[in-house]
Amino acid sequence: MPSEIFSQTPEHSAFWSEYHLCTLTTLRPDGSPHVVPVGVTLDADKGVARVITRKSSKKVTNIQASHPGEARVAVCQVDGGRWATLEGTAEVLTDAEAVDDAVARYADRYGRTPAPDPERVVIEITIDRAMGLVNLARPKTTSTAA
Q: In what order do the strands lie in the sheet with 33-38?
């Protein structure tokens, strides 16, 4: 199935390059959602999103509890009235090349390189649904200084 990310507007991809914390939703074995804050990077050309994490995390455990190719997940970010969600299937990548690439992409988006971590893995999400409302003006920040 072709990724829906390819049919999104340039503003949609641009929104995923701005600095925003996101949520990742995985499913526990009982089907209930596990929602956690994460950093996400989007590779729109490949139709994938990536999250770096530790291999001992609950999100990794949830993904690995699914049959290969069947771990459904969603990542979402919100900024005022602007929002975007990417859904797809996730797999956990452990090879050094994939981890290094994901860390570099994270550093590009979030402006900092995480400290080395031998437990680090990548959750790679093959996107099959993309939705959101990103064409609104960015929210204005207000100053509370007196």
A: 33-38, 22-27, 72-79, 82-93, 120-133, 48-54, 41-43
